[in-house]
Amino acid sequence: MRHLSDQRLQALLLGPEASIRDAMRCIDQGGYEIALIVDGEGRLLATLTDGDVRRALLGGATLDQAVAPFASARPTTVQPGEDRAAVLDLMRARSIAHIPEVDPEGHLTGVHLLRDVIGAPILPNTAVVMAGGKGTRLGKLTHTTPKPMLPVAGRPILERIVLHLVGSGIRRVVLSIGYLGDQIREHFGDGHDFGCRIDYLTEPPERPLGTGGPLRLLQDLSEPPTAPLLVMNGDLLTSFSVSGILGAHTTAGAVMTIGMQSYVHDIPFGVIHADDAGTISSLEEKPRATWTVNAGTYVIERTLLDRIPAGTPFPITQLAEGCLARGEPVLGWMLDGDWQDIGRPHELRAARGEA
Q1: pTM value?
Q2: What is the pLDDT of residues 203-218, one digit of tens each?
Q3: Which residues contact 69 (CB under 8 A, 6 or more apart)?
Q4: Residues 123-351, CATH architecture
């Protein structure tokens, strides 16, 4: 999003008495194909696109006429803090490329631009999302809905993942589906509505291939990937830097990179430290333990695909263990941004704000 402090955004502002000529100059100088009409207190009154100006002129308006009658006095807006996925959803639903951000009092605070929402530098990498599991730990919630399609804040988990990838510059996504996979395929189609190309790997629902086995199927695609692969589980709510992990992988010269997270557990009891004879050396009241854990996100070199057995369940961690056994460089990269696994009922409740 472009904040109001952005000098180019300041150039988009017009007063309510501005003429069509003023608006044309404003739109031309700003380069965003939009002008924003505000009052003296900075409240948003209307928006004006280059299309509005063209229609005004074609309708017989002159350059010196006031532009306000031709502007949209009820523009689509969002409040500060709206996430990227929701903004993109509004843009797609209403076929618009600009959404102003206003505070509860109507003051303009910024503008979301389609080029920014999905306009990160395009990356050559393919992202593979594992979305074929049955989600048995979630019980009846996944009897008729695949786990990655469970909604959080009104949007399927998997859709949030795809939009995050697209917003980070990924333009090709491969979804590995199995259990109730037709629902996923019907929702995402070829990816056009989500700003990317989506292909599918289909594993037999009665014989899941694990977290790594489906990757072997990439070689059967009509256009196999040509750059390191970003692989992630389909039950994650995360906002990690896609370019960050890919860049770290390349810089390190690793054959495989594993995303990491810190897992903290507060022990609700006083802990006693004692030897085998029962002699107590110390007491520790409700300590906090921290571990570094696998965050279900990986970058792997394409050459590793040949090491994955065909048609056989295969955990991706076994691929990493094989690299380590060969003395090949495997990088650990601490994921930045939010990260939450949605594999168990209490995790899903927490993500939905129900915990």
Answers
A1: 0.69
A2: 887 788 999 999 999 9
A3: none
A4: Alpha-Beta Complex (3.90)
